[in-house]
Design goal:
With 192 residues, the protein is mostly helical. It is 77% helix and 0% strand. It is built from nine helices and no strands. The chain starts with 9 loop residues before the first helix and ends with a helix. 34% of the residues are buried. The mean pLDDT is 86.
């Protein structure tokens, strides 16, 4: 039996912690689950994260936010080619969520009572995504009110597609929904 390589620092533990939170939720990710996922003993986990599970989730959320800020939000906010930025967003999101097989930690947190602890982070994540996408659409000559409506629809549609694909065990449903959302945004940009 091949054993997992133990992680040796806080940063390297984050991907394994994120996957454990994705699969078990915040409440279901016990220290035993988190220890097994990272290959770190409980003492090592507390050494890296003295604030316990809350600090682990905070670090995971910061890591997710960093990825989304660089890959999704900033390109939409600093857009020069709105159609290319929208296309890149959908490609990156599809890869990130692995075509609907990977749940959204932030979305899951927003759905349960443990999310109250992280409510500000959850709100900021979704608000920035919607705002950045609306800005991109406005740069593509979509009227502001319509841009906001389309951005909300796209972000909620992506999140819903993740849930639906997982529930149905049908990755193709994620692909179909995301493709329709992308087409809708590109059509709106092309309507000027």
């Amino acid at each position: 039996m091949k054993s997992k390589r133990a992680l040796t620092d806080r940063e390297s533990a984050l991907p394994a912690l994120a996957e454990a939170f994705r699969e078990h939720g915040f409440e279901g990710a016990s220290l035993a689950v988190l220890s097994k996922a990272t290959g770190l003993g409980k003492g090592s986990l507390y050494n890296f994260f003295p604030g316990g599970k809350d600090e682990m989730m905070e670090a995971v959320l910061e890591n997710i936010d960093g990825w989304f800020a660089n890959a999704i939000f900033s390109p939409l906010e600093n857009v020069s080619d709105p159609a290319a930025a929208v296309t890149a967003m959908f490609e990156d999101v599809t890869a990130y969520f692995r075509s609907g097989r990977r749940v959204c930690v932030v979305g899951c947190l927003g759905l349960n009572s443990s999310g109250e602890t992280f409510a500000v982070k959850v709100k900021e994540y979704f608000a920035r995504w919607i705002s950045a996408l609306a800005h991109c659409l406005e740069a593509g000559k979509v009227p502001p009110a319509r841009a906001l409506d389309l951005a909300e629809e796209a972000v909620s549609g992506i999140q819903g597609a993740i849930v639906l694909a997982r529930a149905l065990g049908d990755d193709a449903s994620f692909q179909r929904i995301v493709h329709r959302l992308q087409s809708s945004l590109l059509d709106a940009i092309g309507d000027d």
